[in-house]
Specification:
Layout (H helix, E strand, L loop, with lengths): L8 E2 L6 E6 L2 E6 L4 E7 L2 E6 L4 E7 L1 E2 L7 E5 L2 E5 L5 E8 L14 E5 L5 E5 L4 E7 L1 E4 L4 E5 L2 E5 L5 E3 L5 E14 L5 E17 L2 E5 L13 E6 L2 E5 L6 E4 L8
Antiparallel strand pairs: 1-2, 2-3, 3-4, 4-5, 5-6, 7-8, 8-9, 9-10, 11-12, 12-13, 14-15, 15-16, 16-17, 18-19, 19-20, 21-22, 22-23
Amino acid sequence: VKIPIKYDSAGDFSYEMAHVSKDGKYFTINSKGEELIFTEKNGKWGAVDITGKLVIPYQWDKANPFNEGLAAVQKNGQIGFINRKGEVVIPFRYPYHSNPLTEFIFKNGHCVVADTTGKCGIINRKGEWTIQPKYDNIDAYEEYVIASSAGIRKQMTYDEKIINSFVVDNISVLTFTEIERYENKDGEIVYLDKEVKTGLFSYRVGGRCGLMDANCRRLTEPLYSRIIAVDRNMYRALLLDNYSEVIINAKGEVMK
């Protein structure tokens, strides 16, 4: 199916729907190019079809393009979901949570939302929790999610079964520099920097670092913003304020 080139921006099709914009207005189109247009009037949002007929009355504080037949709308600071007829199918019970409205999008039958305490979980198209709201953040993918809490990230299924209980973003070899003295062929004394491996590693989780040994054993929780090796038994651990430091040893113990 060919769709005329007439939009200012367009996203990829997902489940036969794509989001586009033109002249400051936001559309949802299907693979036939049929449109449902969200527009604003007197500070409220509603939707018209391609003929200009009002389909969804101007009543929402904000509105998000449809995906998988549902759209997030905001009313009195709370998020709910409507169908393409404008009917509320999931009540207004999710806080805005300081997120852009575009983050409240159903994908693969699920959506990340927060409860009244600000903790994140995942709901299905009926508004039922499939992952309970007890996480600081959730990144959702097609087959699994990565849920973060207190600096620990877990990989789990959409029915909250743990796949991997500890997921890291990156691992770095910790090294320090020694000055090596030797005599060259001309009898001159030369000093060179030599990089020495400590045998320990810095692992990163959600922007925080911890200390790990060669057996993948965590010597510290991810409590620091950066770890720098001084020698094999001394490490500078930069705290999360990115200014203060503590000194930890090769066992992960804070030196006092």
